[in-house]
Amino acid sequence: MNVDFKKKFKGIISVIGASDIDKKTEDLAFEIGRLLA
């Protein structure tokens, strides 16, 4: 899909992932990624 958007999204997730909600954020990102793919 939109590569620019995916890169930005990944960057945001990386920042959020640094916190203690790491695993939940990762799962959520994976689900969103599947929906966008």
Describe what you observe in this structure.
The structure is a single chain. With 37 residues, the protein is mainly alpha-helical. The protein has one domain. Helices cover 81% and strands 0% of the residues. The protein has two helices and no strands. The protein has helices spanning 3-17, 22-36. Helix 1 (3-17) runs antiparallel to helix 2 (22-36). The longest helix is centred in the first third of the chain and has 15 residues, at 3-17. The protein starts with a helix and ends with a helix. 0% of the residues are buried.
Characteristic terms for this protein:
single chain, mainly alpha, 0% strand, flat
Strand content: under 5%
Catalogue the unreliable spans.
Answer: none
Number of contiguous helices: 2
Helix fraction bin:
over 70%
What number is the mean pLDDT?
75
Count of β-strands: 0
| Structural class computed from helices and strand pairing | mainly alpha
**Gyration radius, rounded:** 10 Å
Name the overall outline.
flat
Summed up, the domain count is 1
In this structure, how is the largest beta sheet organized? Answer: none
